[in-house]
């Protein structure tokens, strides 16, 4: 075989078997009736920051999604935008809570991306796990600034 | 051709050894509220008490790649992993230390991609969080402002 022919065959083979895959979607929760925080705190009705204590914990919220796409994300097989409002509201109401805190979003790309990256018409998936803690109304605890104990001066005197 | 196939096989093995990848958007260490909706006040209506003061954008990105090349009888594979996680840092820069600030209306954009070019294989996960930085007005101030705007309307 001549050199140009070999190069052409190599190029065609490369074009046939190389590729890329992907999946993408949005998570929102605009209509939740209760506060849903990604951090561990919220404002109380007086505008003070409150962090629920372990005793305020009523339960754990967990929701898993898998979304699929093919042809390098161009064809979305699932819902492009996931609204978490209903599952979050239902979870808070079913447990008689006041809010959700410590919400985390975990995205995972499984090992089969390796094959879907090779063949563009194979669907590619991404798995999402949303987790949080359902809590009851936390009570504001005032921080004690002045510690009435041994100070530096007293220690030095001793 | 044989070289290309060897490179592909070696790069494939390198990437398969990396397995599946996963990343988490985790803001649990932030002491101020970061909420998905517009309500970050417990047990009451907080409408009209917020003033938008900025925008928030945080990113978590995990990239892994393997690159194989051949020179003579030697095949070399370089695999790399890069992690960028500034979601918590950006949130801290926007609201950290401000007891009347919060991030609201957070939207999360999750994307995954994989590229396979035989001797170069790459996979990536991106989690982007977008939100509005707001300041909470004290109740008295909000009532005064509502009264003033009511008078102006009249």
Keywords:
heterodimer; A: 158 residues; 4 helices; B: 154 residues; alpha+beta; four-stranded antiparallel sheet; rod-shaped
Q: What's the SSE blueprint?
A:
The complex is a heterodimer of chains A (158) and B (154).
Chain A: H1 3-17, E1 19-28, E2 42-43, E3 49-50, E4 57-70, E5 75-76, E6 81-83, H2 85-94, E7 99-109, H3 113-116, E8 124-135, H4 152-157
Parallel strand pairs in A: 1-6
Antiparallel strand pairs in A: 2-3, 4-5, 4-8, 7-8
Chain B: H1 2-18, E1 21-25, E2 50-71, E3 74-85, H2 87-95, E4 101-116, E5 120-136, H3 139-153
Antiparallel strand pairs in B: 2-3, 2-5, 4-5
Quick overview of this protein structure:
The complex is a heterodimer of chains A (158) and B (154). Chain A is of the alpha+beta class and 158 residues long. Chain A has helices spanning 3-17, 85-94, 113-116, 152-157; strands at 19-28, 42-43, 49-50, 57-70, 75-76, 81-83, 99-109, 124-135.
Polypeptide structure, described:
- The complex is a heterodimer of chains A (158) and B (154).
- Chain A is an alpha+beta fold and 158 residues long.
- Chain A has four helices and eight strands; from the N terminus they run H-E-E-E-E-E-E-H-E-H-E-H.
- Chain A has helices spanning 3-17, 85-94, 113-116, 152-157, and strands at 19-28, 42-43, 49-50, 57-70, 75-76, 81-83, 99-109, 124-135.
- Chain A starts with a helix and ends with a helix.
- Chain B has helices at 2-18, 87-95, 139-153, and strands at 21-25, 50-71, 74-85, 101-116, 120-136.
- The interface between A and B is large, with 66 and 59 residues.
